[in-house]
Amino acid sequence: MPTIGVKRDLLFEQLGQKYTDDEFQQLCFAFGLELDEVTTEKQMLTKEQGDVAAVADASEEIIYRIDIPANRYDLLCIEGLVTSLLVFQGKIKPPKFIKVEPAKRQVLKILPETAQIRPFAVAAVLRNITFNKNAYDSFIELQDKLHQNLCRKRSLVAIGTHDLDTVQGPFTYEARTPENIEFIPLNQTKKMNGLELMDFYTNHAQLKQYLPIIRDSPVYPIIYDANGVVLSLPPIINSDHSKITLQTRNVFIECTATDLTKAKIVLDTLVCMFSVHCDEKFTVEPCDVQQPDGTVVTYPQLEVRKTVISAEKANAYIGIQEEPAKIADMLTRMYLESTVEQGGSNITVQVPPTRHDVMHACDIYEDVAIAYGYNNIKKSLPAFMHIAKQFPLNKLTEQLREQVAQAGFTEAITFTLCSRDDIARKLNKSIDSIAAVHIANPKTLEFQVVRTTLLPGLLKTLVANRKMPLPLKLFEITDVVVADDDTEVGARNERRLCAVNCNKTAGFEVVHGLLDRVMQLLDVPWKSGNQKHGYYLQATDDPAYFPGRCASILLNGVTIGRIGVLHPTVLQAFELTTPCSAVEFNIEPFV
Predict the structure, then answer these.
(1) How far, in Å, CA of 239 to CA of 182, rounded?
(2) Cβ atoms < 10 Å from Cβ of 455
(3) CB within 8 A of 168, min separation 6: which ones?
(4) SS3 for 277?
(5) Which helix (H) or strand (E) holds 497?
(6) Of the candidates 370, 309, 278, the residue with the CA atom closest to the CA atom of residue 84
(7) 3-19 burial, b if ≥16 CB within 10 A, otherwise e?
(8) Phi-psi region of 390 (alpha: psi -120 to 50; beta: other; left: phi over 0)
(9) Domain named B5: which ranges (predicted)?
(10) Do β-strands 106-110 and 283-290 pair in parallel, antiparallel, or remain unpaired?
């Protein structure tokens, strides 16, 4: 979030009213800003430099440091901030920005070679502008804020501003080899070529960070006027010949870019903010930019977009009850001039060229909420949400983990991904018969599919701990993933409990006892006779288990898992030398 520093007295003068610090803080909060700090220029420099002697001449004038939302480029200077606050307070109407046709438009011609380095450029003219010291400083600071924020440290867009009376159009945007570029950089006296300039600014505190953007390129971007005078070497530095001073009356603005959309936003922001200093306020002179293919595009575009929102939706989303006319008035105060359509609740909103942050109806609803006042919105629970509570399946899982651990089993947490062999060949099965989710581009053979059973993970854990004294009793309660064409994503999760007993003898009674204990905890009876509800075992054949020592676990007649003694070939495939029995079943039916 960028922070701007504005002089308090100058700010109050332009607002036409004086405030206490608390009053101005409340105004900022109501507008969606935050007064971060009240300081002075001397205090700021002392904090940054730590050298009191170096700041002895600094001013004691009060500075307000204000946090600005990163997408509100129109508030990065005092001109935009003052205009927006006056509109918010209802003291002025949102200004209309007008393109004034000159006798002859300035032309910026883009040559094809620029495609190698920075292919886009836009331009505009501010005519009959009046700078004083504060306005000049603000103009320079806005460019710096935009460079650091929207322009991504000049990598996307580089701004050049020039005294139009010192140069002559039409202008050309070219790309030349560094040796063929010569000019006197801003605030210097010696003419340098491109290579000398790079060396000269290598240790410059501000500019050295921008050198890598073009340093290694075979050509550098350069802008000339009709007489071959250099205006700028973007994105590094302007020419000293066309520099702006307090006496400048006409400003030529050019922005070169690798992102045309960002360049348009930057140009719109600059001309809208500082057209307030023109003799005819809020007027801009357009320029023609001739593309490499010969087509001509006029900039700035200063597009006013119209969009329609629903007052009903605005009320519903924010949680208020306001008439459409009131909502339209609130939006107008937020610099979005709005009118209510006749005979309905729809509102037509005009989005000015200063509000490039408005991209969707939700951005407009947010401005309604800001204008209404967040503190004025009554707190209520959303109708479509509930008080947070633990997911029932997760709650059951946690309870079972504790009880299985108390039964003498140690919990293991294994990988969700495994190899195809782990769930197929090592369990005496064919991968084609298993509804597994396969990884399209596995990075290793160990992670080819999502596990369809917890058993391989536990057997691998046993192998890793086979030097531990027997018996080894492990369990895991977590998800497996099964391919399922009936689901939206083609797969579904299934929460299972798996336990393995490894000892000198298989110990089938151990895992059977664990199954009975879990069922007892779940209050599920053993089904016998004509009982409708309960669980029971039914002999079955499973290649992963020893013949005649495997059973299906059935709950109310539906198979939910397997229990039995593992087949010797399975143990051999997992490099185990001691017998094992296992139980694995789905716990979701018990939720």
Answers:
(1) 10
(2) 29
(3) 225, 226, 227, 229
(4) helix
(5) strand 491-502
(6) 370
(7) ebebbbeebbebbeeeb
(8) beta
(9) 302-379
(10) parallel
Give the whole-angstrom CA distance, residue 20 versus residue 11.
12
Q: Does domain 98-299 have CATH number 3.50.40.10?
A: yes
Level-2 CATH architecture, domain 3-88? 2-Layer Sandwich (3.30)
Rounded to 5 degrees, what are φ and ψ at 564?
165, -170
The pLDDT of 103-125, averaged and rounded, is 94
Q: Report d(CA 445, CA 418) in Å as an integer.
A: 8
Residues constituting the chain: 591
Split at pLDDT 50, 70, 90, the class of 49 is: low
Instruction: Return the ∠ at Cα 340 (arms to 336 and 346), rounded to 5°.
Output: 95
Residue with tokens 């450029």: 121
Q: For residues 125 and 138, give the distance between their C-alpha atoms in angstroms, rounded to a whole number.
A: 18
Count CA atoms closer than 13 A to 220's CA, side-chain side: 29
305-376 and 98-299 share a CATH fold: no
Encode pLDDT of 320-334 as tens digits: 888 999 999 999 999
Can you read off the two tokens belonging to residue 508? Answer: 């089938």
Closest CA to 374 of 317, 309, 318, 335: 318
Beta partners for residue 285, in sequence order: 125
Mean pLDDT calculated for residue range 210-216: 91
Q: Which two tokens stand for residue 167?
A: 């140069």
**Cα–Cα distance measured from residue 25 to residue 426, given in angstroms and rounded to the nearest whole number:** 70
Distances, alpha carbon 158 to alpha carbons 146, 238, 293, 324, 396, in Å: 9, 10, 23, 42, 59
Contact 302, 268 (CB under 8 A): yes
- Cα separation, 109 vs 553, in Å, equals 80
Model confidence band, residue 375 (pLDDT cutoffs 50, 70, 90): confident
Q: In what order do the strands lie in the sheet with 346-351?
A: 305-310, 346-351, 338-340
- Give 241's contacts (C-beta < 8 A, 6+ positions apart): 166, 167, 183, 184, 229, 230, 231
For residue 59, the model assigns a pLDDT of 66
Looking at the predicted structure, is the pLDDT value of residue 32 above 70? yes
What is the C-alpha separation between 493 and 504, in angstroms, rounded?
35
As given in the structure block, the two tokens for residue 185 are 């950089």
Token pair in block for residue 458 = 């536990």
Q: Which amino acid is at 211?
A: L
Q: How far apart are CA 191 and CA 241, in angstroms?
A: 11
pLDDT, tens digit (0-9, with 9 covering 90-100), for 550-582: 999 999 889 999 999 999 999 999 999 999 999
- CB atoms under 10 Å from CB of 86, counted, come to 18
Output the CATH code of domain 305-376. 3.30.56.10
What is the C-alpha separation between 338 and 329, in angstroms, rounded? Answer: 7
Domain 392-590, classified CATH 3.30.930.10, yes or no: yes
In the chain, domain spans: 3-88, 98-299, 305-376, 392-590
Q: Residue 579, preceding bond cis, omega within 30 degrees?
A: no
Which amino acid appears at position 513 of this protein? Answer: G
Q: Tell me what the mean pLDDT of segment 373-399 comes to.
A: 83
User: What Å distances lie between residue 407 and 401, 404, 504, 514, 563, CA to CA?
Assistant: 10, 5, 20, 7, 17
pTM > 0.70: yes or no? no
